[in-house]
Design a protein that fits this description.
Elements lengths: L7 E12 L5 E11 L3 E5 L6 H7 L8 E10 L2 E2 L5 H7 L4 E4 L3 H4 L6 H12 L5 H14 L6 H4 L8 H13 L5 E5 L7 H18 L2 E6 L2 H7 L2 E6 L2 E7 H6 L4 H8 L38 H5 L5 E2 L7 E3 L10 H5 L14 E12 L2 E12 L3 E5 L6 H9 L5 E7 L2 E2 L9 H6 E4 L3 H4 L6 H13 L3 H14 L16 H14 L4 E5 L7 H16 L3 E5 L3 H7 L2 E6 L2 E7 H6 L4 H8 L14 H4 L3
Parallel strand pairs: 3-8, 3-9, 6-7, 7-8, 15-20, 15-21, 18-19, 19-20
Antiparallel strand pairs: 1-2, 1-4, 4-5, 9-10, 10-12, 11-12, 13-14, 13-16, 16-17, 21-22
């Protein structure tokens, strides 16, 4: 969809941010404009400069960085020339920001109503308390929240993740800013809540004519909301185009690589992760920063930096920074070279069986008579909205949930629900991989220390044998041997997740429980992790994959179990469940799953809203 051309609300000219210590650019020569009501998608892998750019638009840089050149002109006023007090006056009022994690963005000691009152008292003190109250109730209704005093008396921890995110949207839109920056606001949300939030953003931007920048690594979400897309790579714009252009014919090899790495709920696609890693600001090529990972790079690409040029014969404005704009004519041959592995073993042997599982959180029952079984070498996906009981069930199976009843069998033998009561063999045969690898890895230990301790604990190997096993498992997860000397803080999110998988593999497990392990990863890193898991399936490893991403389910799972309010309401082969769902709840999840092949989600009905 192309919006009508009009005067720009935001003009960014030659914006560059550099490291103070070395002077190397984090982002450089960023130029774009944004009109009222227009939503710009800002996409790219971790390290591409998305957060640095969005922060600079607020006149802010992280510690150790500084804005070295450029202009950020908001409605004719360059905010980079304002002093600290002037910038504070426009933040929240003329420029709003919605953070990725509402749990940390909202003040935990203030009630919801107090957070609105504080914002309005700072920016609109001239209005009466009754006028403030009317504005608050109006915006709450517009974001689909209860517009009453009881809701305003709640604290953030008394709200669900979706409700917290909608409170942040209400706080951002209540002052009707000219520009709003949204930093991955739906990353941790399930598909129905995500669809609701995207609809709210779209409608409010249109109603109030607010220009928006939507930062995300998920291109299916960007396709659902943006008018235009900026693809960032290594701190520079690789492609600048309208949404239709990008998905119908991406013209930069990097954009093409991102799209080819996306799993989709509509069909099982070949996932082709982009090989290699984005370079850090201190290790960038003098030429095209993507040249080391590009199949079409030449000597010119490695020595001469490309600049944005218009694509010839494009229907709509389309710019790319590439020396070889005709590369895409040979893309299919390269694409065919990287096929995802086929499905895992199918031995019909039941390796895990859970019967009549009930679980509680305090006095509240979370799971109700859940039954499931998994065959050796298959991947069973466990899906459902937040609060459906997915993590409770997976932790119960892993032995890290105390209040559980039922029967759990591993390879035909009954095992206790508390891990401390399981034998050493039972513990190392069933391993749990957490969603956040940074929190799961000890920050004061090197990777070698972390992995070695696991090997020595379970198998009592010698120092030399341990070192050999650590090197072997790092190779198995496609990590260089020298990474064992690094600390978790030195690694990217994808590298940390591979270390977490390596730690589990050292235990020689029969079953891996993966709890949302790709939810915060770039699409290319996600594709490489999915490939790794499929290779493990080929070796006979069984996988219980917990996720709210139905595209990932289509790509990796053999079977699906759908949880709703602590009960499994539908189960079956992946193609059967995703292509022909029987239960209304499964149909709802699929209706709001983002896809490359579906039109943007329509407004959620009142009945659907009750689920969120």
């Amino acid at each position: 969809m192309i919006i009508k051309q009009q005067a720009a609300i935001l003009e960014v000219k030659n914006l560059s941010v550099a490291l103070v210590a070395t002077g190397n650019d984090i982002i450089s020569e960023i130029d774009f404009t944004l009109q009222a009501g227009e939503i710009l998608g800002l996409v790219g892998e971790s390290g591409s400069g998305k957060t640095t750019l969005s922060s600079a638009l607020l006149g802010y840089t992280r510690h150790g960085a500084k804005i070295i050149s450029g202009q950020v002109i908001l409605n004719g006023r360059d905010i980079l020339k304002l002093n600290d007090q002037q910038i504070r006056q426009i933040r929240g009022c003329q420029i709003a920001h919605v953070a990725q994690d509402p749990g940390t963005a909202l003040n935990p000691v203030l009630k919801i109503g107090q957070q609105f009152d504080e914002l309005l008292e700072v920016h609109q003190p001239e209005l009466s308390k009754s006028a403030h109250q009317q504005k608050i109730l109006k915006i709450l209704k517009e974001v689909g929240l209860a517009a009453d005093e009881e809701f305003l008396k709640r604290y953030p921890h008394q709200l669900s993740g979706g409700q917290q995110q909608r409170v942040l949207l209400a706080l951002a839109f209540i002052l009707q800013p000219q520009l709003i920056i949204l930093d991955e606001p739906t990353t941790a949300l399930d598909v129905t809540t995500q669809s609701l939030v995207l609809n709210i953003i779209r409608q409010l931007c249109q109603e109030y004519q607010v220009a928006a920048i939507y930062v995300s690594h998920d291109l299916t979400v960007v396709k659902d909301i943006a008018h235009r897309v900026l693809v960032l790579y290594s701190g520079r714009i690789a492609e600048d185009t309208w949404l239709e252009n990008l998905f119908e014919q991406p013209r930069h090899p990097y954009s093409y690589g991102l799209i080819q790495a996306i799993p989709d709920v509509v069909e099982k696609r070949e996932l082709n992760p982009i090989q290699g890693h984005a370079p850090s600001p201190n290790h960038r090529s003098p030429g095209c920063a993507f040249s080391d990972r590009c199949a079409y790079a030449t000597a010119r690409c490695r020595s001469e930096r490309p600049h944005l040029v218009a694509v010839e014969h494009a229907q709509h404005p389309h710019f790319i920074a590439c020396h070889h704009p005709e590369w895409y004519k040979n893309a299919e041959q390269v694409h065919a070279a990287h096929l995802l592995q086929e499905d895992g073993l199918n031995t019909q042997e039941i390796v895990l069986r859970a019967e009549n599982i009930n679980a509680w959180y305090g006095q509240y029952q979370i799971l109700f008579d859940v039954n499931l079984q998994i065959q050796r070498g298959e991947c069973l996906a466990l899906v459902g909205e937040s609060g459906s009981g997915k993590t409770t069930l997976s932790k119960a199976i892993a032995g890290i949930n105390e209040s559980v009843t039922g029967i759990l069998s591993l390879e035909g033998q009954t095992v206790p629900f508390q891990a401390k009561n399981r034998s050493l063999k039972q513990r190392h045969k069933l391993q749990y991989i957490f969603q956040n690898p940074y929190k799961a890895l000890n920050p004061i230990h090197t990777i070698e220390h972390t992995l070695s301790k696991v090997e020595q604990h379970f198998f009592k190997t010698s120092t030399d044998e341990t070192a050999q096993r650590v090197s072997e498992v790092l190779k198995q997860v496609s990590l260089p041997d020298q990474i064992k000397y690094a600390y978790p803080r030195d690694l990217s999110g994808g590298e940390r997740q591979r270390v977490a998988i390596a730690r589990a593999l050292l235990c020689q497990p029969d079953i891996l429980i993966c709890d949302e392990i790709t939810s915060a990863l770039d699409v290319s890193v996600q594709a490489s992790i999915l490939q790794l898991l499929q290779q493990l399936q080929q070796q006979g490893v069984t996988i219980l994959f917990v996720t709210h991403n139905l595209g990932v389910v289509r790509a990796i799972a053999n079977r699906v179990a759908v949880l709703q309010k602590g009960r499994i309401i539908e189960t079956g082969d992946t193609d059967q469940v995703l292509s022909n769902p029987k239960h209304a709840y499964t149909q709802l999840l699929l209706a709001h799953a983002p896809s490359l092949f579906k039109t943007p989600s329509q407004t959620i009905s009142d009945q659907q809203l009750s689920y969120v």
